Amino acid sequence: MTTTQDRTPDAPAPDHLPEERSTGAILLDVLRNNVRQYGMLIALALIVLLFQIWTDGTLLLPNNVSNLVQQNSYILILAIGMMVVIIAGHIDLSVGSLVAFVGAIAAVMMVDYNLPWVVALVLSLAIGAVAGAWQGFWIAYVGIPSFIVTLAGMLLFRGATQIVLEGQSVAPFPGGFQQIAQGFIPEMGPYTQYHNPTLVLGLLAVVALVVQQVRDRRRQRAHELPVLPPALFGAKCAAMAAAVVVVTLTLASYHGVPVVLLILCGLVLVLGYVMRNAVIGRHIYALGGNKAAAKLSGVRDKRVTFLVFVNMGVLAALAGCVYAARLNAATPQAGLMFELEAIAAAFIGGASMRGGVGTVVGAVIGGLVLGVLNNGMSLVGIGTDVQQVIKGLVLLAAVGFDVWNKRRATTT
Amino acid sequence: MTATGSDTTTTTTGGARGRDEAAPVLEMRGITKTFPGVTALAGVDLAVRPREIHAVCGENGAGKSTLMKVLSGVHPHGSYDGEIEFRGEPVAFRDIAESERRGIVIIHQELALVPELSIAENIFLGNEQASRGIISWGATLRAAARLLRRVGLPDNPQTRVGELGVGKQQLVEIAKALSKEVALLILDEPTAALNDEDSRNLLQLILDLRDEGIACIAISHKLEEIRRIADSVTILRDGRSVETLRVRETPDAAPELSEDRIIRGMVGRDLGSRFPERRTYRGAGAGQVAFEVSGWTVRHPTEQRTVVDDVSLTVHRGEIVGIAGLMGAGRTELAMNVFGRSYGIYDGGTVAVNGNPVRTRTVPEAIAHGIAYVTEDRKTFGLNLIDTVHRNISLTSLPGMTRRGAVDEHEEQQVAERYRQSMNIKTPTVFEPVDRLSGGNQQKVVLSKWIHADPDVLILDEPTRGIDVGSKFEIYTVVERLAAEGKAVLFISSELPELLGMCDRIYAMSAGRLTGEVGRENATQELLMRYMTADAELKVPT
């Protein structure tokens, strides 16, 4: 008996679903089916609330929110790529070293060779792609476990960083490059107390969100699939819009949207969409879930694995540029332990050791949990030693909750 | 002890057995076990007499495994209602260790051996022959050798278990059980993964153990096997014990119970026919060769030997063609190598689909040319168990469901919903992870996935392995419908009645070669068995 379900086996025909059941029952169902995702979101909200009270409101002050975003941006970028790697059933230990390596190359290009920063940035991303392709080649086509290949890469890129930098820090960078990590989108229009372009962007985001939700619902209807009842749907849209509005107003009352937040949002949208809706995204999930079955279903496993690592390489390079730009220097010690932060973020955000599970948004939530903990604990004056202990316990608790929840769900 | 020959009808020198109406060695009364929202067992009674082989059968989901988990302490006392009496006293096991101490040992369908450890180490795993924490290897090996002799396994106890075939591994499991002073042996689908010869040996061993005084509960789908060895059979249906039937009066008598009688108990009705009626395809291209393999040869991936040797076969449009063979005959190897070189090393041969030669060097190529392969091992090769029903169904057809590079999730869900209804996949929604489905329903998901890819040629490898009678009929119906719609179906199976019931023509393979071909009208089990066991060198004239 492995087929026990905790729901009634006779679900009503889909087109009757919305009318026949109470709103509350549907809400419960939705929640129960997404415990992991909503669970982490609720945990994040609780952590934010805790530190908001503990710091007497400092946590969510406009300047601190901007700071929070900029401080965690490179870990979030890495976490997104790491999530994809882990979903595919692999791991990447080299990203911290790659961050340092790409930062070093970018620095040398701009400082020693006076290349324009845009050119340096593009070349840096290309180098990240090549580094990812190098590792992807050994993993996908030669068949060496990713743990080994990227452990080698961790040493290799760290050493290469020191060679490139000759053990020194290289600085400073052109202003444009620094803006990647430290800048905000420029102010325009009349003085309004708020940052105008931010308000416009926020408004556009709300409109896009609602339009997308409504279209989705209409298409579901057209395909005779179950949809949320109107009241619940309205509440969902309102809640999402409200969240965007709050963030927008907070950012708009300081310097506006950080440049790096735009980059992050773009990454989440694009990669989230690719993982969810593009064929290759589905193939990554299938490969992580059951490689043998995926291969026999026509998934080109080697190519997909290779591309996953190329993607990780590019994102690590981007994180490397952002980190260097934030410090305004490339140092041999840059990116130390970043791989572990990114891996922790992915697991807190719902990845599974066995692969095949996780979402890009989950990685961001996991990264934010760690980021808010860092920032909040620093604000209330907890030392970095205790911070480490607490972060370790949070990782354990998040994954422990997941394991417990799964065991409860599968009553064998 | 007993003298046993190759045949179950051989007389034994037991003497005191026969009509043994002594108190049962095991009695389970009114066992009720519920999971959240589901009643898995509702007042099940089971009584096993001493020195008896007691079969338990029922459709998948009837509660067989749950009952055995209750008995062996996997579901601890207190998590179920009802009473268990073993050797005359009430028992309340808290875990497996406790039930094993009392002499109840369960051997699961998925073997629980560590491939990297030796036979001896596996036998005494968790029960090490040690004094003061230090293992005595001498004692371990001596005891292991003794146990191996008892189960008739000639291998050295220091052999790594991973090097043994499934049949031998099964024997190691039994040796392990014997090392624990077993009084009641529970076997869950003991021959599901074994070939005929290994099955015969195993069944004989179970009979021998019975003669030594060990009672045995065997869960099995193979009714013919039940008739061969069991003394009684208890039938479960929907979590209830429907009836207990005597298979034979005395242990050595011929069985008196028919397979149809057991089936009637399992499904609660007479199955009018176990196979759907075949319809002839008369559409476009009827009678044309849809799939032709010529001179196909495959080498073993690591060893220097040929596993498929110069095989040529054809399948016409609308035709169901069977491949019979014992395990190791090369049927799966042939199918998987043709399907994108998924097994072994290609060593010559051509494929043509609808008369056009095609290349099938990779799986995507094979799929593009309209070939589909439904694996014999759905859990390893067929499904992404942690993913949902709808995503498993869509996996092979994703490119066809995309709009501007994006998968149309709504279409995907609609397609899955359509198959849920047309294939009668029993699942609350298509968003259920497939590992929550029963074997038969999982198989329907795999079939849906390949049917939706709309192939011209469907290669089905043991499509009904390990699934219950009711689901089997549903799958036969689907296969028949596909043929009636003009698909070419290659049907690989180890169950001869199934081949005879479904196929228009049957090839037989033995040791990598085709050894025979018979049409539906001439096919009999005896003839096929003769081809299947034919010496491959002496090709039987067809």
UniProtKB/TrEMBL annotation, chain A:
It is a multi-pass membrane protein. Its main location: membrane. Part of the binding-protein-dependent transport system for D-xylose. Probably responsible for the translocation of the substrate across the membrane. This is Xylose transport system permease protein XylH. The chain crosses the membrane at residues 38-62, 74-107, 113-131, 138-157, 231-251, 257-275, 304-325, 345-373. Keywords: Cell inner membrane, Cell membrane, Membrane, Sugar transport, Transmembrane, Transmembrane helix, Transport. Coiled coil: none annotated. It comes from Prauserella alba. It is found in: Cell membrane. Pfam families: BPD_transp_2 (PF02653). The keyword Transmembrane helix applies.
UniProtKB/TrEMBL annotation, chain B:
The gene is gguA. Residues 1-14 have a biased composition (Low complexity). The keyword rRNA-binding does not apply. This is Sugar ABC transporter ATP-binding protein. The keyword Nucleotide-binding applies. NCBIfam families: GguA. Pfam families: ABC_tran. Transmembrane segments: none annotated. Keywords: ATP-binding, Cell membrane, Membrane, Nucleotide-binding, Repeat, Sugar transport, Translocase, Transport. Residues 26-263, 291-536 form the ABC transporter domain. Residues 1-23 are annotated as: Disordered. InterPro entries: AAA+_ATPase (IPR003593), ABC_carbohydrate_import_ATPase (IPR050107), ABC_transporter-like_ATP-bd (IPR003439), ABC_transporter-like_CS (IPR017871), L-arabinose_ABC_transporter (IPR053466), P-loop_NTPase (IPR027417). One of its GO terms (molecular function) is ATP binding.
